[in-house]
């Protein structure tokens, strides 16, 4: 529900008991519905859907196509409490690609209790839950338990050896929205680093990871980064794709199709070159502009007032990047952002001619925060 629907649906009346009133089933149901609705609205408005405690997801031992969900409590998409009191096994079968393990709320039909100590035949409604592995994240309102990128139909699903950097066929717990008392972050974003025109150089991955740590430190958002991601239909897994040009390149037909589909699905592409050869303009800059022109994507200079310069941090113009000479450009349009600043190196603490100042690094990290927020906002707008 959007804000207007939530306000309209909020309960605004309750039954006032009086002596001698007839407490029928309908009256009883209405009275308790009021309190139940208030609890649901409090959960939804104060916390939102997410995991309160527990609900860890672990692989089978030995690994196979099943995972185990540990006991725990979550808040559902309508503010309901979802409770798992014992471990649950879930088998993804032969499903492949990006899989999102999601939790939903349910209720049983009214039925008489099977408790032998129950002296009166009362009808009970039992809270239930559903677990499913979907190929689509389904928007930010879903209660996500884990995700995995499964390579083949028979690939065993394993626990991640490095939880901050899970690979194919490993359980990815980075995007769980944990809303319990020990939780600090309300949003989780993902970035894929893709290399074009040369052998992968992980300085931009390390720079993006440094940006992620800076964002996480602020406490209102988390950013997870995957390195050397191929340009394929799997890009839909990420909120932001960081294309790093290392030299001249030409995209294959299927790569162009993957980028078009990614943009159509609400993804955001950030493209820039690594200025490894400081004496000349990187060839990748020319290749990038050719790509966007061939895809009929119109890029314009980012002007003051653009979301990339205002949300959440305000800038009068693009912040300094790696290049300190010439006139670097920052262009944007239709989900694509092109930079000739080489922010990736500045995020890592590098700059042409020497080390950047602390103020330069901080400004670059703040602008990177704007970039991630921009990508999340764009994806939400498309999902609506």
Report the major sheet.
7 strands, mixed
Q: Radius of gyration, rounded? A: 25 Å
Mean residue pLDDT? 89
**Topology as H/E string?**
HHEEEEEEEEEEEEHEEHEHEEEHH
Query: How many separate structural domains?
Result: 3
- The name CATH uses for the topology of the largest domain is Rossmann fold
Question: What would CATH call the architecture of the largest domain?
Answer: 3-Layer(aba) Sandwich
Task: Summarize the amount of helix as a percent range.
Answer: 25-40%
* Share in β-strands: 15-25%
Number of helices: 7
The total strand number stands at 18
CATH hierarchy, class of the largest domain: Alpha Beta
Question: What can you see in these coordinates?
Answer:
This protein is of the alpha+beta class and 384 residues long. It has seven helices and 18 strands. 26% of the residues lie in helices and 24% in strands. The termini are close together.
List strands and helices in order, with pairings:
Layout lengths: L2 H7 L15 H22 L3 E5 L2 E3 L6 E4 L2 E4 L5 E4 L3 E4 L5 E11 L3 E2 L10 E2 L2 E8 L8 E8 L37 E9 L6 H16 L3 E5 L13 E6 L7 H12 L3 E6 L9 H12 L5 E2 L28 E4 L2 E4 L3 H5 L10 H26 L1
Parallel strand pairs: 12-13, 12-14, 14-15, 15-18
Antiparallel strand pairs: 1-4, 2-3, 3-6, 4-5, 7-10, 7-11, 8-9, 16-17, 17-18
């Amino acid at each position: 529900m959007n804000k207007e629907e939530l306000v309209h649906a909020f309960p605004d009346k309750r039954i006032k008991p009086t002596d001698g009133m007839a407490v029928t089933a309908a009256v009883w149901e209405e009275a308790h519905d009021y309190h139940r609705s208030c609890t649901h609205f409090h959960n939804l408005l104060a916390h939102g859907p997410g995991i309160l405690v527990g609900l860890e997801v672990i692989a089978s031992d030995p690994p196979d196509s099943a995972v185990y969900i540990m006991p725990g409590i979550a808040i559902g998409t309508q503010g309901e409490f979802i409770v798992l009191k014992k471990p649950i096994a879930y088998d993804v079968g032969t499903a492949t690609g990006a899989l999102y393990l999601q939790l939903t709320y349910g209720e049983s039909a009214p039925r008489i209790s099977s408790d032998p100590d129950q002296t009166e035949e009362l009808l009970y409604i039992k809270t239930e839950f559903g677990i499913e592995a979907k190929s689509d994240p389904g928007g930010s309102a879903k209660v996500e338990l884990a995700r995995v990128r499964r390579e083949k139909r028979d690939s065993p699903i394993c626990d991640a050896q490095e939880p901050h950097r899970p690979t194919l066929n490993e359980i990815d717990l980075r995007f769980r929205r944990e809303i319990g008392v020990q939780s600090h972050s309300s949003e989780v974003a993902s970035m894929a680093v893709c290399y074009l025109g040369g052998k992968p150089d992980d300085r931009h991955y390390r720079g993006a990871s440094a940006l992620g740590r800076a964002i996480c430190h602020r406490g209102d958002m988390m950013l997870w980064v995957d390195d050397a991601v191929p340009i394929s239909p799997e890009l839909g897994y990420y909120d932001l794709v960081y294309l790093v040009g290392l030299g001249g390149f030409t995209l294959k037909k299927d790569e162009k199709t993957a980028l078009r589909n990614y943009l159509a699905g609400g993804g955001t592409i950030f493209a820039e070159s690594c200025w490894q050869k400081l004496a000349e303009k990187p060839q990748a800059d020319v290749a990038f502009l050719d790509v966007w022109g061939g895809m009929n994507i119109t890029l314009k200079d980012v002007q003051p007032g653009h979301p990339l310069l205002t949300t959440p941090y305000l800038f009068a113009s693009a912040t300094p990047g790696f290049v300190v000479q010439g006139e670097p450009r920052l262009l944007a349009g239709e989900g694509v952002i092109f930079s000739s600043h080489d922010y990736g190196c500045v995020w890592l603490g590098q700059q042409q001619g020497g080390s950047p100042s602390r103020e330069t690094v901080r400004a670059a990290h703040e602008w990177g925060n704007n970039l991630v927020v921009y990508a999340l906002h764009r994806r939400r707008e498309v999902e609506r």
